[in-house]
Specification:
The complex is a heterodimer of chains A (about 300) and B (about 325). Chain A is mainly alpha-helical and about 300 residues long. Chain A contains eleven helices and no strands. The chains are: A mainly alpha (about 300), B alpha/beta (about 325).
């Protein structure tokens, strides 16, 4: 037993380095649901990236000799009314859905985080003006605004990201502002000012990094909402253009044929549900992992 | 006085407006947290600042460091009036005047390691280059009695006393000439209090730093201070050398405060007669007329509710603001 060896001198005692993100990762790993959620997301992402390797069919390949099939060996999830392989469409559709989920959040962060941080840190009249603007954005019906933006900016997929991102940033702006305001009065912020730190320095080095935990959690929760928003847009016909598949568009198309071949609705709906749950579990796990009060 | 004064505060006032209304923000009152405070801190000395909770001690400290911009009055630091400086100019001066906080846990960024915390002042001032930076951090840690191998730890891995040592190390990093200690030991255990007080004392001996030591613990202040100022309701009641103040307090408020301090010797303690003040501290929104202490003062007499006393020399280096002493009478209303 090595424990029986002579005690090492105190000064050479080493211990594993604990970083805050490292600690959070350790806690996250203990959370099975979160890890399961993360795994599902990674699997879906890999499947979306490598879909040409998984299925021999293209998402727009029509085979009018084999329409509306149930699951067979050639078509594991069957085919739709144009003879397109449902698995292929589902895999390629994952690209759209994941891209919507991730890119909208990038737009949300790019707009919401700086605005919220500035409003919270500067305060006063600027804060008032920015937050009243956020209120107006918040009060405006989301779908209506998206339809408007779609009408103005046209139909490319990036415009979908932009439209959904432009309605979703208000939450992050409010959250960031609240975080920054609650941190602003803490002594370590005063300490940084006493040392001669400028407002910009204090914001970037102290206020924003310390606000990040809850923001990451909310972003994770936002991803499934964005995916669902895209599905809803596709459902009412202003999402991605056919034949590009998205899960929402597939549900809409399958809905008309639900009595003829319910698989057409079932599989994309299941996929949306599973992915949303995966993000929700991951977000839940992140919230627990990033909460410093649980630190051990 | 003169040459050897580090900080001179003259007529300092800090009034916080009370506003109401969502849009128009009408002013409906003023909290006179600090109202006409004057004192000086000499090089390498400790001025203790004592008073009850809410009397404005901390506000004075924050005004001196310009964390609040005072409503009126001046704060001269090394001869320059800080109240007339812009934020940019202040940033040039800030390295030489630092602050030690009451709650050591609150004052350290939880995402910074000990090395980051101690090195941050140098970082901000652009003095964080090369191996000298790392060496300076190790030096600062050892000055305050922490081991260099602790440099990579986070605040939550330290005890309260160690955290306060980190706070002290950070304050020392830029070699200040003046430190405001805002109740630096009141959040600590008694044994740890002694360690931190001795540390502060040693540092003053070694580096000649002047302290404005804000506290409500009279024994701690007695141990550490060269001179002591007593505050009541935003004003200074009495300033004197430590021994003069503790042995011969002149202001009735100081007398009452000191009579409340327990004495370790049981025989003497048995004879201690505490002066019990009537009532509560009045609100600084609507302070009493005349001498602010008169409604609670056991020695109040005729003119107290009408005449505002001024802080004046009663004897050598002993200033009092009380109408019992003729120098305190304002020139407009001689006794």
């Amino acid at each position: 037993m090595t424990e029986a060896a002579a005690p090492a001198p105190v000064a050479t005692v080493t211990r594993p380095r604990h970083t805050l993100w490292g600690d959070a990762w350790t806690r996250l790993r203990r959370n099975r649901l979160a890890i399961a959620g993360g795994s599902v997301i990674i699997v879906v992402a890999l499947a979306a990236i490598f879909s040409p390797l998984i299925t021999p069919y293209g998402f727009a390949d029509q085979d009018l000799n084999s329409i509306m099939l149930g699951p067979t060996l050639a078509h594991p999830l069957g085919t739709d009314e144009l003879g397109r392989d449902v698995l292929a469409r589902l895999l390629y559709g994952a690209r759209t859905s994941l891209a919507v989920g991730v890119f909208t959040q990038i737009i949300v962060v790019l707009i919401g985080l700086p605005l919220g941080a500035i409003a919270g840190a500067v305060g006063g009249r600027l804060d008032n003006m920015l937050m009243r603007f956020v209120d107006v954005m918040y009060a405006f019906p989301d779908i209506l605004l998206i339809i408007l933006l779609r009408a103005v900016f046209g139909g490319s997929i990036f415009m979908i990201f932009l439209a959904i991102g432009l309605v979703a940033w208000v939450n992050i702006a409010r959250l960031t502002r609240g975080q920054v305001m609650s941190l602003k009065g803490r002594d370590f912020i005063t300490a940084a000012r006493v040392m001669g730190g400028s407002q910009r320095y204090v914001m970037l080095r102290h206020l924003v990094p310390n606000s990040l935990g809850p923001i990451i959690v909310v972003l994770t929760f936002n991803v499934p909402r964005a995916i669902f928003a895209e599905a809803a847009l596709s459902y009412i016909g202003i999402g991605v253009r056919p034949p590009t598949p998205s899960w929402g568009a597939m549900i809409r198309d399958g809905y008309d044929l639900i009595f003829a071949n319910s698989n057409l609705v079932l599989f994309p709906a299941l996929s949306v549900g599973v992915l949303m749950l995966a993000f929700t579990f991951l977000g839940d796990g992140l919230r627990d992992a990033l909460d410093p009060r649980l630190r051990r | 006085m003169g040459e050897d004064v580090v900080v001179r505060v003259a007529g300092l006032a800090m009034h916080f407006p009370i506003t109401s209304g969502l849009f128009l923000q009408r002013k409906i009152g003023l909290v006179k947290a600090v109202d006409g405070v004057s004192f000086a801190v000499r090089k390498g000395e400790t001025l203790g600042l004592v008073g009850e909770s809410g009397c404005g001690k901390t506000t004075v400290g924050k005004c001196v460091l310009q964390l609040y911009r005072p409503t009126s009055g001046s704060v001269f630091f090394e001869g320059q009036d800080l109240c007339r400086m812009s934020e940019g100019q202040l940033r040039q001066v800030r390295p030489r005047m630092q602050l030690i906080f009451q709650d050591p846990g609150e004052s350290l960024d939880p995402r910074f390691t000990a090395a980051d915390i101690v090195g941050e002042p140098m970082w901000i001032q652009g003095k964080a280059q090369g191996p000298a930076y790392r060496e300076r951090i190790a030096e600062l840690l050892s000055i305050v009695g922490l081991a260099p191998y602790m440099a990579d730890r986070y605040p939550h891995e330290f005890s309260g006393g160690q955290r306060q040592r980190l706070g002290v190390a950070r304050a020392l990093a830029l070699e200040p000439t003046f430190i405001v200690c805002d109740e630096p030991v009141s959040a600590l255990d008694v044994s740890i209090q002694a360690q931190i007080i001795n540390l502060l004392d040693d540092l003053q001996q070694k580096y000649g730093i002047a302290y404005l030591f804000i506290a409500h613990d009279l024994s701690v202040v007695r141990h550490l201070s060269d001179r002591v100022a007593v505050m009541y309701l935003g004003k200074i009641a009495e300033i004197a050398g430590r021994d003069a103040l503790y042995q011969e307090p002149l202001h009735p408020y100081t007398q009452a405060l000191l009579s409340a301090v327990p004495i370790p010797d049981p025989a003497v303690e048995a004879k201690r007669v505490p002066i019990i003040l009537k009532g509560e501290v009045p609100s600084p929104i609507n302070p009493p007329s005349g001498c602010v202490f008169h409604p609670r003062c056991p020695k109040a007499f005729g003119p107290c509710p009408t005449v505002v006393p001024v802080l004046a020399d009663v004897s050598q280096d002993h200033q009092v603001s009380c109408l019992l002493y003729p120098p305190s009478w304002p020139p407009s209303a001689p006794p």
